[in-house]
């Protein structure tokens, strides 16, 4: 069970208990929040040694094992307690939590409902049980988040002074709506702090929330507030280390790593080697990273934290060993909970698969990064980065997908967003789509040349013989706009006039109209030998007889203008694009 699903203060019923129990259970829970697992285990085990029927200590002992990813030990604790007393609703919920982690959803739901029935009174359901059920469903991948939110909202109504309920409700919203539930999560985390300002774990959750938005000022404010309130709160020091690590500040990263280790003493953890390996990464000593993290895996085996695999993936990719890097990327995603994956993790996956030929994997990685990001600008940026990567790899068909998503994601797409979408479609060979997209551009920016020019080019690729005249209208408009500033729009003017000259001569059989366009070209580019030759050919052609049906000629012209020379090769013309 991850830290984010643990409670921050005891249930209201536990707070009322006096004596040693009232002092040590909160101490055990606080140690659990702070990642001091052995300290938490020692406290709960000592309580149970004094009183084996201490239900609260039993529940928290099991929760500690779950947070350590030792589900087997948690199950053993709860099974033993249930054998001693089958009428312990909180232990039933604990066992249901274990079963959810084992994907036994029906058995878990039955445990939850039984616990609710056993504690239900005329005033309704017990908020302690509701809260524990909500926590279990938020924590487990197989949990029902709608069910969790329902139970947690009911718990909040019953016990509005319990900050733990609002913590779990915030976690539920964040997990239920990745990238969208940040607002609801923040409201509930702040509510928890309003109830208990010393509830430092809520500060850490707020910091993690704004970390995904890259609002670093709020991240640092909350982490510093947490260690100020509780100098022994190890988790906050670890997050401060993470912050400075990702910002490549070696001095502060090392400082907070040492404070993290000191705050846990005398407890030691092999996973701390992973943190030291992170310092090696800052120094670009990738062999050091690999050595330390592989040692962690050797010691921890299947209990290795997912972040260790992620660190190895980064290091192997830096060493250009993509095959091994991909192996550890896959292990990271197989073991990490979806709600703990951040947008850069998906980009790591895309980089690992960049040369694998699995283009669908790359597209999905950037889409997932966009979905996970909680800010609109972030969502768009990930899509753009993915599109640029696909463009660089020549995967224009897939690029179209991401360019379209940029357009549909932004409330007010820019002219560049539309242009890039249309351009990707054009070079993907989807000329009908590029015509449509550049039609959007022309409608929104009618005085600009880009939309008309590329709509003309798209239609010319659809109507390759010019017989349908599809490109005539956009090229006529382009010529009209370019004619207003022949110096600025010289290339556009020549392209439009050239196409219309070819259409006039080859399709309309009207050499006089073609000559008008050619003469216009030579007005802006008198030294152009190609168009001088075209002018000479047209002048030597015999005057045609008029065709009443088309306004063309009944006799064949002496020559036909080369469409490719008139229109040009778009790929060459756009080499710089």
What does this structure look like?
The protein is mostly helical and 577 residues long. It folds into 3 domains: 3-269, Alpha Horseshoe (Serine Threonine Protein Phosphatase 5, Tetratricopeptide repeat), CATH 1.25.40; 413-462, no CATH class; 466-577, no CATH class. The chain is 71% helix and 1% strand. It is built from 32 helices and 2 strands. The protein has helices spanning 12-15, 20-33, 37-50, 55-67, 71-84, 89-101, 105-119, 127-139, 145-158, 163-176, 182-195, 200-211, 216-229, 234-246, 250-264, 272-282, 286-300, 306-318, 322-335, 343-352, 359-372, 376-392, 396-409, 415-427, 431-444, 449-462, 472-482, 490-506, 511-524, 529-540, 563-567, 570-573, and strands spanning 546-547, 552-553. The protein has a two-stranded antiparallel sheet. Strand 1 and strand 2 form a beta hairpin. Helix 6 (89-101) packs parallel to helix 8 (127-139), helix 18 (306-318) packs antiparallel against helix 19 (322-335) and helix 29 (511-524) packs antiparallel against helix 30. The radius of gyration is 34 Å and the shape is elongated. Residues 2-22, 548-558 and 564-577 have low confidence and may be disordered.
